[in-house]
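Entry type: protein chain
Record version: 2
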Amino acid sequence: MNIADKERTGDQGTDTGIKDTKVGQKIVRSLLSLVPWVIVGGLLWAGIFVKPNVTIEEVTPPAIERRDRIYGVSAVTPRILWIVGNYGKILRSEDRGASWSLQKTPNQNHLQDISSWDESRAIAVGNGGVVLITEDGGNTWTEIEAPKSEIANKLLRVHTFEGGEVWAVGEVGMIIYSDDYGNTWTRMREEEDVIMNDIVKISDTKLMVAGEYGRIFWSEDKGKTWQDTETDSLGSMMAIKFRTEESGVMVGLDGITMGTEDAGKTWTIIDSAKSGNSEHLMDVLWFDELNKWVAIGNKGTLVKFSSDLKEFEAGVVSERSLSSHTELAAVDGGIIVVGAGVSFLEFTDGDLSVLGK
């Protein structure tokens, strides 16, 4: 083979390699151009035929939430409790508050108080003059029509008595009465520009009401007629209780405490200088276990005092909690206090347990 032949043969090999390279590049480009379509097709197939398996963990809120305000409590027995609060909230416990069951209500107004006749029958009252009753332990609550004012209608306290009797008090001089477990109501006093904060039944026919600006109202004929007295206290009295027909106390704003030993004919006023407390007091109850009155109020205030109003011990429910409280009830071995939450206070060692969290 001469040189010319060799050169011709070499040129032909180079041309063949170049052609092969170009063909490979075309194939690669073609494959690459198909990749987006393959991806889109895969996504479409997954969207149509692949069903995602999503697991959602259900979060159950606590019965008593941090934002809740509990205004009223009723101890049906030393272990069975009802409590009421904001936005129509009603809860029941059958283990002294260790656990609570939320009960469905037909009204979202704030409920201020609750009282019960037994484990089945109870009544709750609150803002807007709302009255709710149950006859089946709270499985169902029914809203009942009650007397109302055109001015204001907040009902603040309610108390039940034997035979279906119940009394409730509130704004604009409201005093209402029912003798059929709260199904029908009668207004027992005309309207007046005064808030009735609490009512107590002293005997079969005698009732007494604690009102604004130190005013006391009483009836000796089961509410048919009323008389009233202006005490030396200008502060509003928020709660009234009697331990006998003769001996009773009232507590109120600025820590004022008043006591009577003659069925309310005369009252002794104890100011903050003597009691050691100037915080508002919202409720009071006599405890045989302590042989003392116990009052609770703002900023965790707890005041214990003797029946003759000579010995006072002012402090707080717990150093760990300065929450304000509105009402208390007696339970096994201590008291339940409600307000910004629900707590149980041991009598023996003063230990405080927060309930329902």
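Comment: Confidence is low (pLDDT under 50) at residues 1-10.
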